[in-house]
Amino acid sequence: MANFPSGVYALTPACADTHRLLQMVEASLKGGVAAVQYREKTGDVALRHEQASELLPLCHRYHVPLIINDDLRLADLIEADGVHLGCEDAGLREARLILGPNKIIGASCYQSLERAMEAEAADADYVAFGSFYSSPTKPQAVQAPLQLLHDAKTLSVPVVAIGGITLENAPMLIEAGADAIAVITAIFDAPDIENTADALNHLFEIESED
Q1: Residues acting as catalytic residues
Q2: DSSP characters for 104-152?
Q3: pLDDT digits (tens, 9 = 90+) for 143-172
Q4: Which domain does 56 fall in, by range?
């Protein structure tokens, strides 16, 4: 089983300008994010391949894994560090067979601890719960209760919190048991991406000192 790092998990925003996307992601890497997920929902296969292929060496320069959202084929094709799968994506066991034992496989578990336990049994390396707060990315998402993070402490895999996370509400999630926080807007819409990523990263250092 691969190790998924704790800390800030940066999810890329939709951006057709590859150069600009690389600039934004590098700023987040300089700010100390622990992992990056390439998340591009358009059907432009060429763009997705181009961007993911260029993000991978960039992330590796900072010793940070690049995870591909939803697209198992793309993750395998560019030899990314892993894949993140939702309920409608390729199965976890299939992903493990294709990617092998050393790649990171994450699973969206929404508001379900039972789904997380099933993902853990299917060899997922981390599970993600959410949405914990209102999110501009998924405004209609059902809200997950904070208690879910407390309940998830029974799991042996890292737990990621997602959905509307900001500098103001992240401490509650970390204190409740989130090993990582997945963030899009709070980082990439910030006037200073690097400093915002650093501030979010610092929240984990504060929690570890308590």
Answers
A1: 39, 108, 138
A2: EEEEEEET-HHHHHHHHHTT-SEEEE---S--SSSTTPPPPPTHHHHHG
A3: 899 999 999 999 999 999 999 999 999 999
A4: 7-209
1 assigned to some structural domain = no
> Can you state the percent helix, strand and coil of the chain, rounding each to 5?
40, 15, 40
Q: What is the pLDDT of residues 8-37, one digit of tens each?
A: 999 999 999 999 999 999 999 999 999 999
**How many domains does the chain contain in total?**
1
Are 155 and 132 a contacting pair, CB within 8 Å? no
The CATH number of residue 154's host domain is 3.20.20.70
Contacts of 155 (CB under 8 A, 6+ apart): 116, 117, 120, 127
Which amino acid is located at 41 in the chain? K
CA 146, CA 157: separation in Å to the nearest integer? 18
